[in-house]
Amino acid sequence: MKVVVLGAGALGVYFGGRLIEAGHDVTFLVRRNRAERIHNNGLEIHSTRGNYVVAQPKVVVDVSEIDRVDLVFFSVKGYHLQGAIPTLIELAKKGAYILPVLNGVEHFSVIEKALRPFIEQGVTKEHPVLGGLSFIIATLDEKGYVHHTSKQHKLVYGAFHHSQQEFCNKLQTLLTKVNIESENSEDVLLALWEKYMFITAFSSVTTAANLPIGMIRRYAETKQVGIDVLQEMRQLGNKYNVPLDENTC
To answer: Alpha-carbon distance 131 to 159, whole Å?
Structure first.
């Protein structure tokens, strides 16, 4: 399977690097300044789950340099989404499934809307966008090396449409020998909303209170605010027909 990582930040380098470590064909599609940094420093992963040096990473700066691709691991920041759309379109036209792992849920409809004309023309797959999310704490240092500081390094993915299931099953087989935790979710939309609920609720409450999660949970008043925001997010998800229930909160 040919994988292109679009967005070689901490997330993209970590998961892309783990795929390379397991012997898979991965290309990093990056901006020119990031390519120069990789050329000068290489890529390294410093992790609680084992260090790894990517000896000779395949790096390109233009989508035209990519001949064929099966999967795009799409991990840019949300504010770079619109700028990445033209590249995603070109990769989809080369036969790729797209696996976004951005936080939130709205980016899926944005990508689908951008691809719709090309889907209708039959130049991309009929359903090219998979569901995806990740759980990991990782940053880049000044050399562009990844520092993974938690035990968790989980990738969750799944089919939005039954036609994608065969590919997700192939991906599941591929990932069994990769040094990450992975899950082929039977309800990836629900998984996305569950994460969206918690990051929205706790990021807002910790910011407003200027307190860490532990302190928020310690006091009944701040803990209740967190629960109230979770309930609002649950109700929002229900409006979108996502079956979030009281137990989720």
So the answer is: 6
Residue 47 is classified by DSSP as: E
The residue segments making up the domain with residue 174 are: 2-186
Number of independent structural domains in the chain: 2
Place of tokens 């504010």: 79
Taking the C-alpha atoms of residue 155 and residue 168, their distance in angstroms, rounded to an integer, is 13
* 6 and 71 assigned to the same domain: yes
Instruction: For residues 117 and 155, give the distance between their C-alpha atoms in angstroms, rounded to a whole number.
Output: 30
- The token duo for 195 is 């994460």
Q: How far, in Å, CA of 190 to CA of 110, rounded?
A: 19
Residues belonging to the active site: 195
Residue 80 and residue 26 share a domain: yes
Half-sphere exposure of 141 (CA within 13 A, CB side): 13
* pTM: predicted TM-score of the whole model, two decimal places: 0.93
Q: In which residue are the tokens 């449409």 written?
A: 161
pLDDT of 78-113, one tens digit each? 999 999 999 999 999 999 999 999 999 999 999 999
